[in-house]
Fold this sequence. Notes:
four-stranded parallel beta sheet; mainly beta; five-stranded parallel beta sheet
Amino acid sequence: QIPIAAFHSCSSLSSVTIPNSVTCIDNLAFSRCRSLISINIPNSVTRIGMAAFGYCDSLTSVTIPNGVTSIENSTFHGCTNLTSVDIPNSVRLIDTKAFAECTSLTSVTIPDKVATIGYQAFQGDKQLENVVMGSGVTSIGGEAFSGCKNVREFNIKAQMPPVCDSKALNDIDKDNCLLCIPEGCLSAYLD
């Protein structure tokens, strides 16, 4: 285990390779490591804690290992140079502010097993253009995509439309965004 706040604010830390013996990266473990560019997370890791990589604003990409079941509160909040993230099929929850203020993120694919997208999960991701939402999503939290004004394609694979909390999709420009839904499901989405 990498303990709570183990490397918090290590401003000169630029690269990390986590050994295969680690199963948990605890809360705030690497938060505010502002020079951290790359991190190699092994498949042995099954939990990445709250704000574990929050405000690692030099981090450009991350692959979350298969086995992690939730992207916890603020895990990657404020990673302003994060351009790509690989979310595995094991994830079932994308929690509050998990990817908020990732202002360089351009696309995201949410796996089929994710049921819930939390409050402000992608809030402020102003470069986000393409969202693919898996077939298992049943609820989208309030303001989940607020500030995402550049989304041009929103592809929802769920047969039934997810329940959206207040202002979940509020800032998406509905006149310039293509909504893609499964064939034969139009009446469900119109209701």
